[in-house]
């Protein structure tokens, strides 16, 4: 069977930059799946993507499907022929459906009987017939939330399609996809190189497109070039470029021929907090800011042009003119906002709605101020500073800067609070109240900040649950992220806080606004549920997490200690046997409907194995008591692991369910005591091998 490289390129109008990589990777994945379903072998798929194209190159693709023999089983012989040996209607109908006579059928013998069988030879289809259909199927499965129509066509795609190239080696694969017929013509850069090129062979892609059409279709090559040149450009002005992954990806998706240039802005703008300047440079203009070795913003920025200009100074000047009004706006807002103390904006929060059933942002501010103060007392934070931070927490939402540059909320509150002479802990908390903003993000750095951050997040979670809007599929209030943030703050700081207390206190701030009666129980379940995803991400197996969840510890720091202890226990040689023994004990106790003695009666011990076990149990119960008191779960489980041998010996030599009721109850009481020791940490019976 012959092979050739196959190329498909879809030329489009400008594709959405934030979706370009996703579309390209999905196209490759879906097309690969189509080839596998069609039983077409190949040696790998490489994807290409630029603002105006999606392309795939399939290495050594087979020129046709392999021939197949399809077996079609018919009726059982007993049902296929009557007593005289004549075919029944069932047999004749089956044969007719396969285009044969009953006499042409084979017989399939198995251990379970004998059936009619037809082996059909199915020749494989040629590649030129299959590829248009497979490509169309793959494109139809791309993640496109809002497909569009164009012109007078009924076809839909994320953007209008202009060209289609399908080449199998040097052969044009004819076909129409998304209303466009395949040919050999690809489009070059809009302003440089050849506007169009005719390909003779699939192997000419992407080299000819880059050389003659001035389009670098290799996405990863473009990205690497941007990063390399941006670093070099920053170093040339004595700085380091901030190359955020998301922004680099977006810029890579915006250009077909990246040219990295450096521009400047006036030094006077540096008196504005750098966060505001960076926000407008990165968010509005897609520029990379430059910092010095001390992390201070330099009056420089790096941008990526889509053309190789003969006069780059003009391109640089143009970008400087574009960004200057935005920086001037930031300067004006900063100067204007500082004319009023931040606290003066507190009453204005009554005009902004947090959620119509939960009141205004001023209402939320009052709630989190009270809740943060309560949390502060529990974690040893300065209560006065925490409550002051609560009052100021949302005031920067009423400033011109945050109104214009929304992502600067919190950080501008910090700068304005410092200008007003607020304590540093208060100012810092205004920024850090939103931390962590995403998975893996940094945590608040002080107890005051931590108290405010937890109060803000818990207020939102309890409020939204309290009006019956718990997240299902979508999560518009980011409650999952908020819950995980609270857990991380508690666990990673070792705060001895109980979720039950936090939820109850948060609910109390709402008075009678909440309509959902089970809000406290539901929020607790929701919070505990976040542990599974978090610890799985950290590499803990589901059964370890489930073992702890079975005990429902509501102190996150305590939960963390238990998970780590069970994880260590599971690594011990004795763990598997003790987990099985605990499961066995649990099953036995579940079936016993009598009342167990409160303690083991040593006078009723008869067998040597049960006497030995009773001695060890008594010793270990005494040994683990102070360990449990100190929450030293790992130490306790390590001690209890020594029960393995006497427990195994007990089960091998002692009849637990003895005929004598007193003897049976005493033995069950001892097993119950053992199980209770493990349950002080987790239900290890759910641990898997």
The shape, in one word, is flat
Low-confidence stretches: none
Mean of residue pLDDT values? 94
Cα-atom radius of gyration: 35 Å
| Oligomer designation | single chain
Strand order of the largest sheet: 2-3-1-7-8
**Helical content class:** 40-55%
What is the distance, rounded to the nearest whole angstrom, between the alpha carbons of the first and last residues? 47 Å
Protein name: Glycine--tRNA ligase beta subunit
Catalytic activity: tRNA(Gly) + glycine + ATP = glycyl-tRNA(Gly) + AMP + diphosphate
Main location: cytoplasm
Keywords: Aminoacyl-tRNA synthetase, ATP-binding, Cytoplasm, Ligase, Nucleotide-binding, Protein biosynthesis
Explain how this protein is built.
By secondary structure, the protein is α+β, with helices and mostly antiparallel strands. The chain is built from 25 helices and 18 strands. Strands 2-3-1-7-8 form a five-stranded antiparallel beta sheet, with helices on one face. α8 packs across α9 (312-337), α16 packs across α20 and α19 packs across α20. The chain is flat.
């Amino acid at each position: 069977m012959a092979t050739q490289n196959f190329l498909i390129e879809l030329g489009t109008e400008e594709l959405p930059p934030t979706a370009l990589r996703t579309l390209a990777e999905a196209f490759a994945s879906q097309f690969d799946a189509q080839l596998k379903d069609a039983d077409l072998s190949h040696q790998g798929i490489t994807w290409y993507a630029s603002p105006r194209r999606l392309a795939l190159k399939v290495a050594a693709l087979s020129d046709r499907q392999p021939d197949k023999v399809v077996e079609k089983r018919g009726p059982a012989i007993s049902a296929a022929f009557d007593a005289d040996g004549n075919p029944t209607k069932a047999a004749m109908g089956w044969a007719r459906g396969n285009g044969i006579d009953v006499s042409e059928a084979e017989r399939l013998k198995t251990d379970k009987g004998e059936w009619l069988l037809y082996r059909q030879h199915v020749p494989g289809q040629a590649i030129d017939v299959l590829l248009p259909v497979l490509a169309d199927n793959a494109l139809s499965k791309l993640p496109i939330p809002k497909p569009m129509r164009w012109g007078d066509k009924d076809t839909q795609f994320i953007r209008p399609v202009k060209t289609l190239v399908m080449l199998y080696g040097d052969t044009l694969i004819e076909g129409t996809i998304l209303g466009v017929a395949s040919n050999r013509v690809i489009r070059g850069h809009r302003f440089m190189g050849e506007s169009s090129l005719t390909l003779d062979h699939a192997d000419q892609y992407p080299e000819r497109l880059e050389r003659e059409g001035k389009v670098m279709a290799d996405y990863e090559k473009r990205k690497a070039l941007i990063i390399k040149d941006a670093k070099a450009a920053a170093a040339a002005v004595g700085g380091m470029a901030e190359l955020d992954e998301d922004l680099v990806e977006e810029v890579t998706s915006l250009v077909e021929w990246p040219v990295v240039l450096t521009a400047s802005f006036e030094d006077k703008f540096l008196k504005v907090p750098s966060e505001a300047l960076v926000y407008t440079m990165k968010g509005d203009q897609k520029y990379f800011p430059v910092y010095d070795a001390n992390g201070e913003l330099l009056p420089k920025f790096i941008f990526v042009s889509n053309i190789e200009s003969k006069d780059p100074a003009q391109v640089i000047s143009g970008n400087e003119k574009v960004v200057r009004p935005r920086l001037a706006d930031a300067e004006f807002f900063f100067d204007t906002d500082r004319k009023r103390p931040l606290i003066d904006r507190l009453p204005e929060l009554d005009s902004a709605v947090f959620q119509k059933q939960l009141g205004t942002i001023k209402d939320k501010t009052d709630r989190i101020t009270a809740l943060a103060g309560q949390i502060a007392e529990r974690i040893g934070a300065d209560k006065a500073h925490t409550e002051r931070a609560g009052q100021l927490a949302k005031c920067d939402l009423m400033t011109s800067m945050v109104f214009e540059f929304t992502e600067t909320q919190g950080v501008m509150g910090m700068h304005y609070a410092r200008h007003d002479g607020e304590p540093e802990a208060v100012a810092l908390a205004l920024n850090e109240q939103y931390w962590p903003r995403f998975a893996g993000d940094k945590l608040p750095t002080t107890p005051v900040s931590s108290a405010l951050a937890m109060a803000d997040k818990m207020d939102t979670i309890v409020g939204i649950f309290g009006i019956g809007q718990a997240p299902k599929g979508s999560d518009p209030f980011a409650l999952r992220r908020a819950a995980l943030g609270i857990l991380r703050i508690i666990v990673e700081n070792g705060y001895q806080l109980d979720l039950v207390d936090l939820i109850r206190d948060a609910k109390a701030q709402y008075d009678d606004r909440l309509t959902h009666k089970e809000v406290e129980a539901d929020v607790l379940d929701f919070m505990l549920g976040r542990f599974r995803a978090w610890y799985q991400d950290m590499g803990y197996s589901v059964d370890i997490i489930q073992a702890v969840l079975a005990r429902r510890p509501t102190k996150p720091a305590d939960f963390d200690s238990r998970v780590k202890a069970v994880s260590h226990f599971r690594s011990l040689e004795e763990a598997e046997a003790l987990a099985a023994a605990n499961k066995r004990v649990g099953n036995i106790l579940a079936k016993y409907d009598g009342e167990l003695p409160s303690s083991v009666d040593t006078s009723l011990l008869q067998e040597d194995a049960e006497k030995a076990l009773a001695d060890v149990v008594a010793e270990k119960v005494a040994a683990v008591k102070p360990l449990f008191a100190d929450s030293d779960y790992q130490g306790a489980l390590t001690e209890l692991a020594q029960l393995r041998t006497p427990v195994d010996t007990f089960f091998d030599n002692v009849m637990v369910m003895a005929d004598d009721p007193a003897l049976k109850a005493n033995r069950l009481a001892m097993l119950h005591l053992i199980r209770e020791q493990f349950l002080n940490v987790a239900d290890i019976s759910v641990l898997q091998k």
